[in-house]
Design a protein that fits this description.
The chain is an alpha/beta fold. It has 3 domains: 62 residues, Nucleic acid-binding proteins (OB fold (Dihydrolipoamide Acetyltransferase, E2P)), CATH 2.40.50.140; 145 residues, Rossmann fold; 58 residues, Probable gtpase engc, domain 3 (Ribonucleotide Reductase Protein R1, domain 1), CATH 1.10.40.50. Helix content is 27%, strand content 25%.
């Protein structure tokens, strides 16, 4: 029996990168997985057996660190939140929602902003002020330009030895980002719809691509931002930059909404937490609380 990493799932086949040889083995899952309601995912560390590269079988799936439903992928370390400055426009609300989803799954978010070289200086300065606030909150922000391929090499140290996913707006440049890191990928990119202000999804399946001594998944479906699996306390916990203040709140389990002597609201008033960041938190809490119960 051998061990490996599932790097692609397509039409019932699982492509396993062998831990010892580095060969990719095409496998199917044994019937017991269907019986046990276990479905192997890209990112799973598995046990398998195979006589040659076309007739392997996945026999067991190791315990997962985390698992996403959309996209279906497991054991993710970090998410590159890819947002553009324009076409589509940069949105702190969307960034914060991606951060919320990432941190809920114990995934480290890294904000990547594309098209920095095609905006006017006034717009650029306004965005730089927002980036400074994100960095003050403890998040990495990487600035990228369409005609600045060397800027993409800033990503290499973050990618090494990690499993990463690309999240963000359609049309913001997720596939372009990977092509810049390795032109051999030749991933399809899509034009941005002028009427909708967003791009067409050009990625059709989940696949881990080996780049910069790590793995990056170009993942369709991560732009699905419903908070259907969340409870209100999940939102509070996932806003990790509130934690340094929440211990000072008067009430244990403070929701940071209407309670008196809330240290988080005091930090907002003192400009230690940006007001727009707190307003996004309030809107996410409201979204979760208005959801109909699921049975």
């Amino acid at each position: 029996m051998a061990t490996g990493l599932i790097i692609k799932a397509l039409s019932g086949f699982y492509y396993v990168l062998d831990d010892q040889t580095g060969a990719t083995i095409e496998c199917r899952a044994r019937g017991k997985f269907r019986q046990q309601a276990i479905k192997p995912l890209v990112g799973d560390h598995v046990e398998y057996e195979a006589e040659h590269t076309k007739e392997g079988y996945v026999l067991g799936v190791n315990a997962r660190h985390n698992a996403l439903v959309r996209p279906p992928i497991a054991n993710v370390d970090q998410a590159f939140i890819v947002m553009s400055t324009v076409i589509p426009d940069f949105s702190t609300h969307l960034v914060d929602k991606f951060i919320l989803l990432a941190q809920y799954h114990d995934i480290q978010p890294v904000i990547c902003v594309t098209k920095m070289d095609i905006i006017r200086e006034q717009e650029r300065q306004a965005l730089l002020a927002i980036f400074a606030q994100y960095r003050q909150l403890g998040y990495e922000v990487i600035e990228l330009g369409l005609d600045q391929p060397e800027a993409y090499q800033q990503l290499a140290p973050f990618i090494a030895n990690e499993v990463s996913v690309l999240a963000g707006q359609s049309g913001a440049g997720k596939s372009t980002l990977l092509n810049q890191l390795n032109s051999a990928f030749e991933l399809q990119t899509g034009e941005v719809s002028k009427s909708l202000g967003r791009g067409r999804h050009t990625t059709r399946h989940v696949e881990l691509l080996h780049v910069c001594q790590g793995f990056v998944a170009d993942t369709p479906g991560f732009s699905q931002l419903e908070l259907t699996e969340f409870q209100a306390e999940d939102v509070t916990q996932a806003f990790g930059n509130f934690s340094e203040y929440s211990s000072q709140c008067k009430f244990r389990g403070c929701s940071h909404l209407n309670e008196p002597k809330c240290a988080v609201k005091a930090a907002v008033a003192a400009a230690e937490i940006p007001e727009w960041h707190y307003e996004h938190y309030v809107s996410f809490m409201e979204e979760v609380r208005q959801q109909k119960p699921r049975y």
